[in-house]
TrEMBL record:
Keywords: Hydrolase. Residues 114-262, 310-379 form the Alpha/beta hydrolase fold-3 domain. The keyword Hydrolase applies. The keyword Membrane does not apply. GO terms for molecular function: carboxylic ester hydrolase activity. This is Arylacetamide deacetylase-like 3. GO terms for cellular component: membrane. It comes from Hipposideros armiger. The gene is LOC109381231. Belongs to the 'GDXG' lipolytic enzyme family.
Length: 406
């Protein structure tokens, strides 16, 4: 009795301590740019996020479970809100769980289809966390949406995540008539890591002779390369919530199964040989990014001399399954038209800018929507009550607009 009381008191004090630590840490480390709308809301959101990660890390250190497992356990407790206008069905494509969203309003023609890949760095995020986005997309664009519940880190690393998505997408493309989807109007879409997956899928399945062609790709602040973490946006937004450099490295290194001790080597750009940097300079170099994005304190970092051991372990970043931004020109030129959403205060903003330029240089049409006051993850605040940012609705509208014009 006394022991459990003592434990209870200890636990309460410890929890309050963790909470206070997270808040103090937020004020010391988080950078909230002056241009973000509703900075207070972003601060609260960041503290909640950091609280979640901190508890996850505590559980990981205590060897109770890994941080991602802890967060996904919480995801699974989330209640799902039904939308009266959308019919949601849980299915499995093989072993891969998917959710299918179909507008209830009757339609006498075949509907457009959207295959959606959620974000979360391959670590967090689930069918549930992106349920609201999929409902709204389905309802407002009148499309059938298929959301893919791919397997994730730490149990599954690169390239399982992408392979699951490819398998689910191919399966969907082969069974379009079952869901009354028009084969000429299937698009792929994703946010953050899921945006990267959408881009990779367009590159990987375009040569499939017996599959309908993907009509378009919607890339919402996508991760499009894992080679260079010294782009202007990475420097400018390194401590901007909700995606900080720390979290990026945690996700990337775990996903690629690279020892975390290489982080500083990667930041010095010493993990790849000079000839590789030279080869890709024409696509990754800062001259590809418009001047106005290079203002806020960007300083070019020249690659440090190569660390051979690091290169042996990190060269997987040069695989187009991890960095679709460096696909060859002949691949780029065959890609479907794109809608690219980028946010000004996002570590990954320049991935979008560089991919946009590569597509345009290859003759692919791009519709670009840049959120001037946006940060990474803002789209996810859609329908989140107090936490909703107005930009989330604007992004949805931009995407729906794009879809309607296809
Ligand atoms: C990562 O590298 C460090 C330093 O080289 C080493 O001590 C550690 O054992 C490595 N970790 C794993 C999991 O290989």
């Amino acid at each position: 009795m006394a022991a459990s009381l003592l434990f209870g008191v200890f636990f309460c004090v410890f929890s309050v301590g963790v909470g206070l630590w997270v808040i103090c840490n937020h004020f010391v480390t988080a950078h909230i740019p002056a241009g973000v709308s509703q900075p207070l809301k972003l601060r609260v959101l960041d503290c909640l996020f950091q609280l979640l990660f901190t508890w996850g890390m505590i559980f990981e250190k205590l060897r109770i479970c890994s941080m991602p497992t802890f967060i996904r356990f919480l995801h699974d407790l989330m209640p799902l809100k039904e939308d009266p206008d959308v019919m949601v069905t849980d299915l499995r494509f093989g072993t891969i769980p998917v959710k299918l969203y179909q507008p209830k309003a009757s339609s006498c023609t075949l509907r457009p289809g959207i295959v959606f890949y959620h974000g979360g760095g391959g670590i967090i995020g689930s069918l549930k966390t992106h349920h609201k986005i999929c409902c709204r997309l389905s309802k407002e664009s009148g499309s059938v949406v298929l959301s893919v519940g791919y397997r994730m880190v730490p149990q599954h690393k690169s390239p399982t995540l992408v392979k699951d998505c490819i398998a689910a997408t191919i399966h969907f493309l082969k069974s379009l008539d079952k869901y009354s989807v028009d084969p000429a109007r299937v698009v792929v879409a994703g946010e953050s890591a899921g945006g990267g997956i959408a881009a990779i899928i367009c590159q990987q399945i375009m040569d499939h002779p017996d599959l309908p062609k993907i009509r378009a790709q919607i890339l919402i602040y996508a991760v499009l390369q894992l080679m260079d973490f010294q782009l202007p946006s990475s420097q400018q937004n390194k401590n901007v919530p909700l995606l900080r450099e720390d979290f990026i490295f945690y996700c990337c290194l775990n996903y690629l199964d690279i020892n975390s001790s290489w982080r500083s080597t990667i930041l010095k750009r010493a993990h790849l040989p000079a000839k590789v940097w030279e080869k890709y300079e024409k696509w990754l170099g800062p001259e590809n990014i418009p001047e106005r994005f290079k203002k806020r304190g960007y300083r070019q970092v020249s690659p440090a001399p190569l660390n051979e051991a690091a290169y042996l372990e990190t060269n997987v970043v040069l695989d187009v399954m991890n960095s679709p931004l460096i696909a060859e020109d002949e691949v780029m030129s065959q890609l479907p038209e794109a809608c690219i959403v980028s946010c000004e205060y996002d570590f990954l903003r320049d991935d979008s800018l560089l991919y946009k330029k590569r597509l345009e240089d290859s003759g692919v049409s791009v519709t670009w929507y840049h959120v001037e006051d946006g940060f990474h993850g803002v789209f996810n605040t859609l329908d989140m009550g107090y936490f909703q940012f107005p930009s989330s609705t604007k992004i949805l509208n931009a995407i729906v607009d794009f879809l309607k014009k296809l």
